[in-house]
């Protein structure tokens, strides 16, 4: 959207605010904004969800959960997914508005994406995120926001929201009273980069504050976060919303104020424009008692209403008449999107594509996969997630027109091939028995029977959103939604032991939204796939991978810890010992890891750097090192990627900067700083260019100040992370390029 149009929208918003009484203004600042008939303003509900598809409002495309889409490591594809989501959101909004349905989950203000850093694998909401890495989260988040908001110069397609700002990742059970304490260094190096990227690069329209406190300040009323950093430092021009009923927590949970009026005054004064909840009704008292001002309320409401003008669902004509429906502007191209756009063929194609790309091949000893139909007469599909629709969708989901479970996907794939499919759920997801009146392990004999009559076994275990999710959304033995540990729950490991003991060839599929400790499974199974919550088309995507119609190309967006690894305390927000960037122990499967059915080679063919990049050492030109100074042009590295195998596939060229030879206190070991995905036919070669500027080498110090520290940096380039474990699992090493900062 161009600047002149944005200014016009803000001008009209101010004009509309000036027509309102203080009481009317206050009620417009709740997520349920009522109609003002005298002004021609219809009701609008700001609460809508679109984490991986339009949610909670009927039929829509259900894409893989966010963590799964992150595993695709594909910025461009995530942008296409977001474009589908906003198209379906517009289609649904247009028809709902036409029939005067202005309720919850019906608007164009989508509270997504969740760009919190998945710092601890026990966090229940981690599957809503793009993983543990700030760079990957930034790149995917920017692409998602741009896809949601569109590229029209006059109108925003839908409004995205960066949440939960900031330093928020559990525990869920104490989020309404918890104080997340982090250093200035970790704040800047880990917790804020993605938010900054979405604000400054993607121009995200909204930001949502978190429930917790950060370093003593309630996030939804934090002067540091909302004023000093978001508005003043980053130049954010959109609106800020609270998380739902988080303003109430300022008094009741955090004990920072003595009354609701003081709480809303603190939040309003420090920059929270809109309240998800009803506590902003107390703004009338807050003004009267001097906790905030009507001038600040005018500013907040202007921020909020500007969004609706930019969406083209609110207008004031030349005669001062207010229009507040989906067709408020006649030239709004998005007002013509009709309901036929929902669940379209294009949407299904993109859904299947992202589901296939998200699946990560963790192990494939002896080339167990892909399965060859001509050598199989029977397949046993065993496990509590094998025929579970719940394990396809994660949370914050819509309603699909069709769900294809893993069992259904396999059955469809082998139909007509003379292959019989046997099935058993094996056990309950976490209870000790399937039938309420049954005995413990009441399906174990059936598991043995299926193994006896099957040529190959496909086991499907893991979790679903009833075991990991948001506090209040889950209702099981885990309570708050966080995981108590990283082990498979219930009797699932017992079922896997039984399958392994059968001696039959077996493939393991894990459907979960987070990392599980799969040490024992890694020893028992020759082939393992991490399928995440793969969306409504998930079973078809997994079947396509298993039988070789599609080559796996996913990579882990988070570390899969070993049972041997020691995790820091869940409540400790210090990054030391967490994620691939700071841990010193050896994980089971590293961040960035993912196998393929084919092989790739990467070769650096050209390096272009700025003036003075190469120097003479002892009279000879030092071609092994690049010398770099602050402000120098970026280093452009051309990489030739070759598919040396016999099957088409996609290589993910990952570029890491290693800081181990740099004198910087508490610095990460290495960080992902470049990413290019390239699809190649068997025998094909392509070149990609990785560009790195000084931001790739700079680090934040203990005071939160960015610095380009002198020392020797190493740029590593490959289809994986440059750690010893990845090298052992893949048999390959990354290429290294030395950069000296003087």
Average pLDDT works out at 96
Total separate domains: 3
User: So, CATH architecture of the largest domain?
Assistant: Alpha-Beta Barrel
Widest beta sheet: strand line-up: 11-16-15-14-12-13
Major sheet description: 6 strands, mixed
CATH class of the largest domain: Alpha Beta
* Spatial shape: globular
Q: How many β strands by DSSP?
A: 28
Decide which structural class fits the backbone: alpha/beta
Provide the gyration radius in Å: 26 Å
Q: CATH homologous superfamily name of the largest domain?
A: Glycoside hydrolase, family 3, N-terminal domain
Give the % helix. Answer: 25-40%
Proportion of beta-strand residues? 15-25%
Provide key terms for this protein:
742 residues, alpha/beta, TIM Barrel, Rossmann fold, Immunoglobulin-like, 3 domains, six-stranded mixed sheet, five-stranded mixed sheet, 28% helix, globular
């Amino acid at each position: 959207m161009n600047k002149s149009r944005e200014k016009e929208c803000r001008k009209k918003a101010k004009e509309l605010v000036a027509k309102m009484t203080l009481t009317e203004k206050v009620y417009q600042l709740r997520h349920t904004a009522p109609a003002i008939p005298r002004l021609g303003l219809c009701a609008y509900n700001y609460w809508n969800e679109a984490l991986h598809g339009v949610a909670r409002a009927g039929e829509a495309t259900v894409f893989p959960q966010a963590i799964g889409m992150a595993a695709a490591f594909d910025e461009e594809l995530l942008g296409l997914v977001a474009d589908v989501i906003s198209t379906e959101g517009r289609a649904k909004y247009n028809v709902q508005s036409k029939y005067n349905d202005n309720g919850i989950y019906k608007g164009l203000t989508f509270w997504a994406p969740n760009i919190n850093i998945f710092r601890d694998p026990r966090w229940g909401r981690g599957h809503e995120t793009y993983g543990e890495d700030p760079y990957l989260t930034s790149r995917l988040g920017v692409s998602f926001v741009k896809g949601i908001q569109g590229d029209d110069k006059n109108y925003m397609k839908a409004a995205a929201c960066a949440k939960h700002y900031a330093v928020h990742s559990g525990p869920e059970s104490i989020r309404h009273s918890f104080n997340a304490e982090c250093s200035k260094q970790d704040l800047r190096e880990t917790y804020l980069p993605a938010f900054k990227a979405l604000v400054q690069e993607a121009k995200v329209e909204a930001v949502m504050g978190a429930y917790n406190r950060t370093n003593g300040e309630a996030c939804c009323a934090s002067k540091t976060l909302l004023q000093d950093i978001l508005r003043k430092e980053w130049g954010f021009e959109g609106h800020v919303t609270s998380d739902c009923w988080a303003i109430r927590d300022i008094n009741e949970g955090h004990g920072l104020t003595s009354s609701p009026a003081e709480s809303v005054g603190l939040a309003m004064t420090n920059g929270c424009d809109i309240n998800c909840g009803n506590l902003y009704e107390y703004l009338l008292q807050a003004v009267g008692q001097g906790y905030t001002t009507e001038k600040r309320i005018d500013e907040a409401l202007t921020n909020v209403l500007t969004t609706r003008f930019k969406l083209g669902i609110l207008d004031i004509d030349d005669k001062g008449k207010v229009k507040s429906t989906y067709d408020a502007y006649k030239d709004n191209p998005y007002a013509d999107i009709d309901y036929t756009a929902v669940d379209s063929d294009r949407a299904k194609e993109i859904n299947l594509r992202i589901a296939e790309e998200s699946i990560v091949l963790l192990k494939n000893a002896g080339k167990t996969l892909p399965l060859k139909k001509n050598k199989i007469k029977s397949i046993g599909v065993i496990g509590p997630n094998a025929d579970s629709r719940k394990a396809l969708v994660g949370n914050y989901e819509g309603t699909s027109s069709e769900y294809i479970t893993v069992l259904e996907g396999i059955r469809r794939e082998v139909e007509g091939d003379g292959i019989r499919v046997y099935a058993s759920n094996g056990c309950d997801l976490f209870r000790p028995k399937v039938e309420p009146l049954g005995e413990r392990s009441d399906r174990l004999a059936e598991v043995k029977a299926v193994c006896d009559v099957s040529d190959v076994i496909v086991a499907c275990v893991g979790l679903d959103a009833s075991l990991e999710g948001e506090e209040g959304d889950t209702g099981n033995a885990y309570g708050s939604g966080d995981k108590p540990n990283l082990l498979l729950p219930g009797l699932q490991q017992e079922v896997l032991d039984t399958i392994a003991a059968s001696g039959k060839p077996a493939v393991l599929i894990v459907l979960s939204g987070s990392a599980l400790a799969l040490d024992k499974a890694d020893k028992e199974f020759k082939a393992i796939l991490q399928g995440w919550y793969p969306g409504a088309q998930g079973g078809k995507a997994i079947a396509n991978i298993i039988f070789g119609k599609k080559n796996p190309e996913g990579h882990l967006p988070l570390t899969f810890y070993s049972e041997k690894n020691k995790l820091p305390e869940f409540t400790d927000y210090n990054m030391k010992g967490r994620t691939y960037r700071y841990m010193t122990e050896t994980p089971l499967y590293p961040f960035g890891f993912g196998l393929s059915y084919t092989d790739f080679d990467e070769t650096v063919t050209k390096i272009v750097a700025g003036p003075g990049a190469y120097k003479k050492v002892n009279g000879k030109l030092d071609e092994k090192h690049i010398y770099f100074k602050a402000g120098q042009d970026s280093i452009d590295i051309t990489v030739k990627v070759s598919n040396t195998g016999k099957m088409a596939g996609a290589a993910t060229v990952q570029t890491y900067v290693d800081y181990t030879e740099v004198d910087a206190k508490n610095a990460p070991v290495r960080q992902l700083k470049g990413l290019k995905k390239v699809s190649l036919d068997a025998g094909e070669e392509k070149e990609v260019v990785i560009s790195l500027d000084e931001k790739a080498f700079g680090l934040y110090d203990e005071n939160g100040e960015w610095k380009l520290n002198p020392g020797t940096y190493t740029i590593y380039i490959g289809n994986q992370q440059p750690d010893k474990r990845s090298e052992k699992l893949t048999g390959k090493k990354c290429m290294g390029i030395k950069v000296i900062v003087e």
